[in-house]
Request: fold
Amino acid sequence: MIFIYLAVSLICFFAVFKSADVLVSSSAAIASHFGIPPVFIGVVLVGIGTSAPEIFVTVIASFSGHPGIVLGNATGSIAANTGIAMAFIFWLIEGNRHKATGADAEVIQSARFFALNFTFLALGAFVMMFAFAGGISRLSALLLLGLIALYFFLTAKITKKYIIPKIRNGNLTVRFLRFAEALAALIISSKIIVWAVSAFAAELGISEFIIAVTVVAVGTSLPEIATSISATRQGELGIAVGELVGSQALNLYFLLGVSALVKPIQIDNSYFVFGWMALLLGELCFLIWMKKIPSRVKAALLFVTYCIYIFMNFRVMA
Reply:
């Protein structure tokens, strides 16, 4: 059985990155068709699409009365997106081979885009440490949903000045169908990988907790990780960065907001400690984004910090 699990994982890994390639190319074509900066398509369309499984899982967990899963999934995804996906982006753009150009570069490097995302993560860390310590009420949930709406509005306002020339190649309906098919294949393949690797680890006698904080945590973020790598390799850095920051905002505000609206979240304060730790990891990403530090040093810094985050999970929760 072990070899079967390995074979299934390898096949699905291939499917994940193949479908991510199609997802990115379809997203870029949709952006070109409407003259919208790819970074905005990344934040909204790709960000929402790749975050859909996490949103679905956490709403079900909230209905079932598992608040630890709700918060753990949200903050674990933020940490993995930053410590793994963003680290890959920094690693790949070393040597200017995959750096953003044109409208993408202007948006990503603009002070307003930087300030917006930095502020929203900092705000999330603040409320996690102080306002929501011990639980998230329905009133707080409405506040979170209001903030995600404000985030998308401000993102649209910032990016609308960076309109790109419209290029209408091919049928738009076909583009959206290819996007939907690629997204479905990406999500299904990722879920199968989580199942196969978890089963493989269990066959080897690895504990359920270790599987949860490693395989499952990274597996739920695999669509974002694969998409960001594929987008960077294709030179669509706007989609890669937009998808990650959009996913961070969705995980923090929309995912927790909807879950708490379904059922108020009441959990031990130690979970919130890991919540703000994950958000501070995200803040580290933005702090080094504009700094003149070699890209691969930035990648190593983010990954090492993510490993420390995982280690702290082991120490406190094991």
The domain at 2-317 is CATH 1.20.1420.30 (A middle domain of Talin 1). Residues 198 and 211 are 6 Å apart (CA to CA). The radius of gyration is 19 Å.
